[in-house]
Design goal:
Shape: globular
Structural class: alpha/beta
CATH architecture: 3-Layer(aba) Sandwich
CATH topology: Rossmann fold
Number of helices: 7
Number of domains: 1
Order of helices and strands: EHHEHHEHHEHE
CATH class: Alpha Beta
Length: 135
């Protein structure tokens, strides 16, 4: 199984939020090779800037480095197909641009999107992709 992490999934761990254990379990499964775990560079930017506000830029960089060293495959290119899908998702479902990219990427690669973001519910119902809800 292939899962794509939304930024909020990792932030749940850092903020010790309910539902974080599901993300920790996914990370452990990815470490032993039971699942594939990915994240778009756009969602990694979201984690980075969130952590800058909380712990400062140097610690935020360290956090990103630890994410890069972990079991998450970072998708660091955006195809035109994903760009077009993200634009369509953004305008069709009134979601943030980052969430539009997460949704379009998950759909494009056939991954289950891991999120707690309720603004994605309408897209999940209308589009051909699955979401693992964290709440």
């Amino acid at each position: 199984m292939h899962y794509l992490l939304d930024a909020c999934a990792l932030l749940m761990i850092f903020n010790d939020e309910p539902g974080a254990q599901k993300v920790i379990d996914l990370l452990q499964q990815a470490r032993v090779g039971n699942i594939r775990l990915s994240m778009s560079i756009i969602q990694l930017v979201e984690v980075f800037y969130d952590r800058i506000y909380i712990v400062g830029i140097d610690e935020a960089r360290s956090i990103v480095e630890s994410i890069l060293a972990g079991p998450i495959d970072i998708i660091n290119t955006i195809s035109y197909q994903v760009m077009y899908e993200a634009g369509r998702f953004k305008t069709s479902y009134s979601m943030s641009l980052a969430d539009a990219f997460a949704s379009a990427t998950a759909k494009s690669i056939g991954a289950v999107l891991v999120t707690k973001d309720d603004e994605l519910r309408p897209a999940e119902k209308a589009e051909n992709f699955s979401i693992l809800w964290l709440k």
